[in-house]
Amino acid sequence: MKKIIAILIALILLTLPVFAGHEPEANMGNVAYTIQKYAEKPVIDGILDEYSYTKLDVKPGDISYGWSDSVTNGADLAKNLDFAAYLTYDEDYVYLFLSVDAANYFNDIETFGDGNMWAQSIIQANFAAVTDAGGDRLEYGIGRNSINGELNYICWAQYPGAAAELNLQPGTDFQIVVTGGRLNYEVRTPVAAFTANGKLAEGGQIGFCLVIGMCDKSLAEGQAAGGYLHTQVASGCSGGKAADQFAKITLAGVMEGRPVIVEEVEVVEEPADVGTPAVTPPSGGAAQTGDSYIAILIMVIAVTGVVVFRRKAVR
Q1: Of the candidates 33, 37, 34, 47, the residue with the CA atom closest to the CA atom of residue 257
Q2: DSSP classification of residue 180
Q3: 3-state DSSP call for residue 297?
Q4: Residue-wise pLDDT tens digits, 27-75
Q5: Distance CA 141, CA 136 (A)
Q6: Structural Rg of the chain based on CA atoms
Q7: Using an 8 Å Cβ cutoff, are 265 and 294 in contact?
Q8: Rounded Cα distance, 71 and 222, in Å
Q9: For the chain, give me the number of helices (H) and strands (E)?
């Protein structure tokens, strides 16, 4: 039943007017990144973990754009969106973190499965094998209601031949937070939902496409008419389904982890037992008490050793 609904939604979307404005990426078919396996497993909380993610080196030629003609300066807004995207993986999941400027954040979706999510502030994540083409892909969307903070989700396309169907749980599989003028998305995608064997390993490759959807707040009453902005890493989702245009992601080894700190240890050696040196008074008179004490102090210092082990960081 879920597959039938997803197919019907996709057919409806295909009958809608195509972008009023659309610009493909200059590097179409050649967008590629290498990501590392995390040193520390990501916590799905909408906060970037320093030793977990590889930042994608997204160049201007890697990005395609789409915008509605109902959005004033839609092309400029889509092309100048400030965002940073990160990926990592293990054998069971691909993890995605995205931080984007929230200046045009609007989302009034209230229920899971709303097919109009693509026209609001959301992300559409797409995964496939690097050999796939056309509509063979996993495609889903996640968003956060900008009024009450509730999370929403929809799967538009289940991957054909996948080991399992996708069923993301809010708060567990994905989280979206607003902080410091940024909208942060974090989501883990089960490998079983876009592969037949359900596992990933170093040296492998996957296809990936990310659509960042934003809205102009002034269009809140007209979202159903299509007041959207799409900034897309690679292409193959927004503007036409084509998995062969996805970015190619190569899976590298484990990233460098947190430095190991060796705590400072200070050892002070006790002076050797040399006894009390005899002091012979100078001939012809009484002992010079001050000079004797100085001589004793010099001898004590001479037989005292101090060893200090310095603190250092080892990577």
Answers
A1: 37
A2: T
A3: helix
A4: 999 999 999 999 999 999 999 999 999 999 999 999 999 998 878 788 9
A5: 16
A6: 32
A7: no
A8: 10
A9: 3, 18
